[in-house]
Amino acid sequence: MLVAIAIPAQAEDIHQLARAVDDHYNHLHSLQADFTEIYRGEGAERVESGTLWLKKPRKMRWEYRSPREKLFISDGQAVWFYLPAERQLRKTTVKKLDDLRSPLAFLLGKTKLESELRGLSKVVDQSPLSPENTLLRGVPQAMAGQANEVQLEIAPTAQIVRIVLLEADGSTTEFRFAGWKENLELSDSRFQFTPPPGVETVEGELGP
């Protein structure tokens, strides 16, 4: 009897939490946060960090500072990836983008967790980074064949503080966020990119 009662109660908790996250992000027009990106795969680990800005619609700027500088920018239509040390610039369009960072661009104004993550459920075999947070998992609809599962760590404020992507090849990419600043006045120029003189632009696939 207790099991029969607990399961619907937990499901309702997940529905309520998903709706709270949807409501939080769908009322925002811009975001800024410090991020740490952790990649684990084939026995290796890579840790990078920097600052992220998001602005409706689909604009984003990932400014990596450690261990090396690089930029990943979208103005909502075009996407640039620039490595200053190598004077290398790659460019593509949002429609052609196949990148683990791209779903974050859709957080603002279009969030619907239960549609985007199939089978959304609470993670019970792992603990969140902070005990007051809730860890959810689901199968990403928009990343079929690329990521088998997405985990979201959600704070009591309904903010997403961590995203873990379990990729099809067995590797994981984790994003941790801190210092969220919401509804800042961000100029569109922050999400545009002009190649420095002498830098060749290669159009095609992007990658880290």
Strand order of the largest sheet: 7-8-9-10-11-1-2-3-4-5-6-12
Tally of individual helices: 3
Evaluate the radius of gyration. Answer: 18 Å
SS content category? alpha+beta
Q: Low-confidence segments, ≥5 residues, pLDDT <50?
A: 1-9
- Return the string of H and E elements: HEEEEEEHHEEEEEE
Q: Helicity range of the residues?
A: 10-25%
Biggest β-sheet, characterized? 12 strands, mixed
Give the averaged pLDDT, no decimals: 85
Distance between the termini: 51 Å
**Globular, elongated, flat, extended or rod-shaped: what is the shape?**
globular
Strand content: over 45%
- Please count the beta strands (DSSP E, at least 2 residues each): 12
Notable traits:
single chain; 208 residues; alpha+beta; 12-stranded mixed sheet; 3 helices; globular; disordered N terminus
Task: Characterize the structure shown.
The chain is an alpha+beta fold and 208 residues long. The protein contains 3 helices and 12 strands. It has a 12-stranded mixed sheet with strand order 7-8-9-10-11-1-2-3-4-5-6-12. The N terminus is likely disordered.
